[in-house]
Design a protein that fits this description.
Chain A: It is found in: Mitochondrion inner membrane. Chain A: This is Cytochrome c oxidase subunit. The complex is a heterodimer of chains A (88) and B (227). With 88 residues, chain A is mainly α. In chain A, helix 1 runs antiparallel to helix 2 (57-66). Chain A has helices at 29-49, 57-66, 69-81. Chain B has three helices and ten strands; from the N terminus they run ααββββββββββα. Chain B has a five-stranded mixed beta sheet with strand order 3-2-1-5-8, with no helix packed on it. Chain B is elongated. Chain B starts with 14 loop residues before the first helix and ends with a helix. The chains are: A mainly alpha (88), B alpha+beta (227).
């Protein structure tokens, strides 16, 4: 589930992440990181409540579009090893 | 692309670059006028045998040569700020592409739909076919659709680089750990060349950028062949 290659986006109308007014400037690092965190937090919460993780797919698609592949792979590796620095 | 004995900018391929060209023409004209006026004045001063030794005050000319430069500076600042804000307009991109700088090549990631990534190395001079441009051609060009705003996110996997395409008016630093966003909008199809613009080691001059802009329906066909 954490492997970026194994996660395929759901079919449907997806173009590209829209403008996010929380990150209006040139530096989009936080935009990518925040959506990555939000996806994992959403999945964890939905799983804990026993609900479907389908609403979390939005965050997944945004971080996949914005975040460099190597960053995602590194973070997923850290999550697997338990060394990821962010709070999920 | 750049050509030998080039004196000015490359032809604009995006609306922003067109505006920059006009602004540059406007500002350079002011610079030339001031420089010729000054040169002419100096030449007059150096070629006269008349003298004047009792100037006490010059209120009127002092006022003029204070107000006039202030007006000229405003005439430069207003178009400059207009373009600056135009570059920052919020647009709705249709596509997001990541450009990762490496020593010494670029990687392009198209991950809106599937995970598509490819490297772009410079074609070495020995491998060029006749008609190709030395130190500018690459094996895999970055292929994009025309007339659509495209979000380009630039970063680096090792040292500082800079992703540049002069004919589109783009230059964005590639900084490891940071994701810099720029918007690309090409008005016409064609090949657009650029070169890495931040010193990054031995082959800094040998990691060019080539954009191949094609109409949307051909871009979609190309995407299908790549996925």
């Amino acid at each position: 589930m954490l492997d970026a290659d194994a996660q395929k986006p759901p079919r449907g109308k997806w173009s590209t992440p829209p403008f996010d007014p929380r990150f209006p400037n040139q530096n989009q690092t936080r935009n990518c990181y925040q959506n990555f965190l939000d996806y994992h937090r959403c999945v964890k919460t939905m799983n804990r409540r026993g609900k479907s993780t389908q609403p979390c797919e939005y965050y997944f698609r945004v971080y996949r579009s914005l975040c460099p592949v190597s960053w995602v792979q590194r973070w997923n590796e850290q999550i697997r090893e338990g060394t990821f620095a962010g709070k999920i | 692309m750049a050509y030998p004995t080039q004196m000015g900018f490359q032809d604009a391929a995006s609306p922003i670059m067109e505006e920059l060209l006009y602004f540059h023409d406007h500002t350079l004209m002011i610079v030339f006028m001031i420089s010729s006026l000054v040169l002419y004045t100096i030449s007059l001063m150096l070629t006269t045998s008349l003298t004047h030794t009792n100037t006490m005050n010059a209120q009127e000319v002092e006022t003029v040569w204070t107000i006039l430069p202030a007006i000229i500076l405003i005439l430069i600042a207003l178009p400059s700020l207009r373009i600056l804000y135009m570059m920052d307009e919020i647009n709705n991109p249709s596509l997001t592409i990541k450009t990762m700088g490496h020593q010494w090549y670029w990687t392009y990631e198209y991950t809106d739909y599937e995970n598509m990534t490819f490297d772009s190395y410079m074609t070495s001079t020995n491998d060029l076919t006749p008609g190709e441009l030395r130190l500018l051609e690459v094996d895999n060009r970055m292929i994009l659709p025309t007339e659509l705003p495209i979000r380009v996110l630039v970063s680096s996997e090792d040292v500082l680089h800079s992703w540049t395409v002069p004919s589109l008016g783009l230059k964005t630093d590639a900084i490891p750990g940071r994701l810099n966003q720029t918007t690309l909008m090409a008005s016409r199809p064609g090949l657009y060349y650029g070169q890495c613009s931040e010193i990054c080691g031995a082959n800094h001059s040998f990691m060019p950028i080539v954009l191949e802009l094609i109409p949307l329906k051909y871009f979609e066909k190309w995407l299908l062949t790549m996925l």
